[in-house]
Specification:
By secondary structure, the chain is mainly β. Helix content is 14%, strand content 49%.
């Protein structure tokens, strides 16, 4: 799978600290529509049909699938047209710069649709109610912690993009449904 879960989490936390405070952090989940190595950009088409153009830089971290082997070659790792991804980026004006890219699916993050029951900012966890009626608790990455401040506790139904590490579910991103 490439980078170990713990290493990926540490990389995410370190990458987040490298960006200026006036940058606005966001994320988009969707399908890679195009990769342009000349302009170092990737266009991601979100589920709602909107398209986001994101710039890749040398510090852009790519996780999942075969990212480690390909990542040594260029900033894009193994990101290619048709991939399902979550791109965490900062925006300064109209320019969006990818901090990290997580593959979704085989070799990458899993996803689950659930209803948010509670958010514990101190413990950095979110408890959800599953479609089957059970409850699950997700631990949050540093990036996901920032995103939970955007009203996740009032979001209702969400898609959780997560990995499993050491028997725990680690939430990387939430998308409202």
């Amino acid at each position: 799978m490439g980078i170990s879960g713990r290493s990926a989490l540490i990389l995410c936390l370190l990458a987040g600290g490298a960006f200026a405070a006036d940058d606005v952090a966001s994320a988009v989940a969707g399908t890679v529509k195009s990769v342009d190595k000349g302009t170092k950009t990737v266009v991601v088409k979100a589920g709602d049909g909107t398209e986001q153009t994101v710039h890749f830089v040398g510090r852009t971290a790519v996780h999942g699938a075969d990212a480690t082997a390909a990542g040594a070659k260029d900033a894009f790792g193994d990101v290619k047209e048709g991939d399902e991804v979550v791109v965490h980026y900062t925006a300064k004006g109209a320019v969006k710069t990818a901090q990290e890219v997580d593959h979704v699916g085989k070799g990458g993050m899993k996803m689950s649709v659930a209803a948010v029951k509670s958010v514990d900012h101190g413990a950095k966890t979110v408890t959800v109610k599953t479609a089957e009626g059970g409850e699950e608790t997700y631990h949050l990455t540093g990036t996901a912690v920032k995103e939970t401040g955007k009203g996740l506790d009032k979001a209702g139904k969400v898609t959780v993009y997560y990995t499993e590490e050491g028997g725990k579910k680690i939430a990387h991103f939430f998308s409202t449904n």
